[in-house]
Give the backbone structure.
Amino acid sequence: MSTAQAQENTLPLWEVGVFAGGASTPAYPGSPDRASRALALPFLIYRGEVLRADRGGVGARMVHTDDYEFDVGFAASLPSNSKDIAARQGMPDLGTLVEFGPRMKATLGRPSAGSRVLLVLPVRGVLEVNSGVQGQGLSFEPELVLETRDLNNGWRASTSASLVWGNRRLNRYFYEVAPTYATAARPSYEAQAGLIATRLALSASKSISPDVRLFGFFHYENYAGGANRASPLHLQSNGLSAGIGLAWTLSRAETRAQN
């Protein structure tokens, strides 16, 4: 058993607590306007042998070995009000996007006892939450990840590079301009399936105390190679996202999780 696995086995089976933090992102990929939010929410972490809800994903871990894992991944993005986005004036608002779907992880190497290189292949269905729930297509984000645990002073970090692809429905959501919403400055446009962004990401966390963890993330995205860069809504070739927060555990199980 590796050092990283042994450390994972020392974690409690479940934890409940409160998360508070804030994030700022582009209003949508290729937008010069931004969406920013501060949140305070309860959280539940459950590290069952099959059913899991933790920092790495939510759902069923169907296959798990030292080098391979198949589970359900999860992602989300902030909503944006079109009246606050110059290019989308008069168009429908962009709701909160919730993404989930199957994900395969393969360990490509272990540079040290506390680190590993992963290939992550997630396919996610995209749901928009905005006065109801509506499907908005599919995304695919092949990702190369370097995870490093237990750096100096208890820091953990993850760096990654990925390509974000969307099917036609998802890209229509971001970039299509229907004739109804066309103006002299915003001609109609029919979006196509393809690349949305190239993403470089860094995330880090540190235990301040047994019950409090500080974490943050930073993303750089390049949209210059996007399939819909001809859209009148595609106005910027790169974007930055960042966030910071605290997780405070209020209660935890005495039973330890099994890796």
User: Anything to note?
Assistant: The mean pLDDT is 89. The first helix runs from residue 3 to 9. The radius of gyration is 20 Å. DSSP finds two helices and 14 strands in the chain.
